[in-house]
Amino acid sequence: MSKEEFKEIRRSIGRTQEDLASDLGVRTRTISRYENGEVPIPAAIAAAVKALSK
């Protein structure tokens, strides 16, 4: 999953970075790092975000 796709899905489901971090059990800074491309998005996180969008 690209950083752009990750961010677009988050926005489309109406979640803030803080909300999504809570949903996924990670820190807000981690969500920011995913969206900025600072760290790769793990497959498990990508799958969870896709599941939330359905």
TrEMBL record:
Which InterPro entries does the UniProt entry name for this protein?
Answer: Cro/C1-type_HTH, Lambda_DNA-bd_dom_sf
The transmembrane segments are: none
Q: Which residues form the HTH cro/C1-type domain?
A: 6-38
- PROSITE patterns attached to this UniProt entry: HTH_CROC1
Q: Which UniProt keywords apply?
A: Plasmid
Molecular function via GO:
DNA binding
Q: Which residues form a coiled coil?
A: none
**Name of the protein in question:** HTH cro/C1-type domain-containing protein
